Amino acid sequence: MGLRAVGLLLLVTLLTMPGSGAEVCGEGEYLYEGICCVLCPAGTYVAQHCNTSHPWGKCTSCTEGRDYTAHANGLEECLLCRQCKDDQITSRTCTVTSDTECQCKQGYFCPAEGCEICQRCSQMCPEGKEIVQICNATMDLGCGLPDQGNRYLTWMTVIILFAVVFAGLLVFYTIRKCKSDKATLSDKAERGPVHKWLKYMNHPIGFVRLFLPAPWPGSQHFMYS
Ligand SMILES: *[C@@H]1O[C@H](CO)[C@@H](O)[C@H](O)[C@H]1NC(C)=O
Ligand SMILES: *[C@@H]1O[C@H](CO)[C@@H](O)[C@H](O)[C@H]1NC(C)=O
């Protein structure tokens, strides 16, 4: 490949490089047939491009309710307004500078980002969950765990129930033990921890008098000091 061929290739590359035109024109301008034209403002389109004798082209307003341009532009026609689909309602009508805004009908939702079709809202929450978010145009019915207050009450009920059952069992067992202890009163070895517990409960200083098991050697001394 000769030096001239390389030079030609370089020139062609430079000329066809994307953005080479944009660098020529200033801010708020666009390139049309080698000339920089001033952009038409939002709400209008370019009815006639500029030329060497007139750097300002001819801008014409979009048609209200039919088409729009949201930004300054070099477009030869305005953009058509969006038509809301059958499952949607118009939340904002089209103006010459903004497109139509649509949202799902009552009872339907569609995520705000990337909405394709409106989906029917969930009707109820699964068992054990409650509504934490009412369905609106952008969010489905939200379900969550019951609130903290209710959960606290539930736990309190469970704990109290357990305590009552435990106390009942203890009383029942104690009475039975007492009866069997009376039957074999002479046999001191038969006396179990429940008997000791009873003795402690009945006696004002029962704990001190009570025989303490071996693992707490210093306890009796501690109680007196
Ligand atoms: C240049 O543009 C102006 C306005 O945009 C237009 O009236 C005129 O006819 C144009 N001239 C030529 C030669 O295209
Ligand atoms: C739907 O509810 C969510 C959360 O409460 C809120 O962020 C969003 O803006 C609401 N959407 C509409 C269309 O009201």
Put the structure in a nutshell:
This protein has 225 residues and is α+β, with helices and mostly antiparallel strands. It has helices at 3-16, 20-24, 148-183, 193-202, 206-209, 219-224; strands at residues 29-32, 35-38, 44-48, 58-61, 67-68, 79-80, 88-92, 101-104, 108-109, 119-120, 130-133, 142-144.
Question: How would you portray this structure in words?
Answer:
There is one protein chain. With 225 residues, this protein is of the alpha+beta class. It has six helices and twelve strands. It folds into four domains: 25-103, Ribbon (Tumor Necrosis Factor Receptor, subunit A, domain 2); 105-144, no CATH class; 146-182; 192-225, no CATH class. It has helices at 3-16, 20-24, 148-183, 193-202, 206-209, 219-224, and strands spanning 29-32, 35-38, 44-48, 58-61, 67-68, 79-80, 88-92, 101-104, 108-109, 119-120, 130-133, 142-144. The strands form six sheets. It has a two-stranded antiparallel sheet. A hairpin with an 8-residue loop joins β7 and β8. The model is unreliable at 6-22 and 218-225 (pLDDT under 50). It binds 2-acetamido-2-deoxy-beta-D-glucopyranose (2 copies). Residues 48, 50-51, 53-54, 57-58 line the site of one 2-acetamido-2-deoxy-beta-D-glucopyranose.
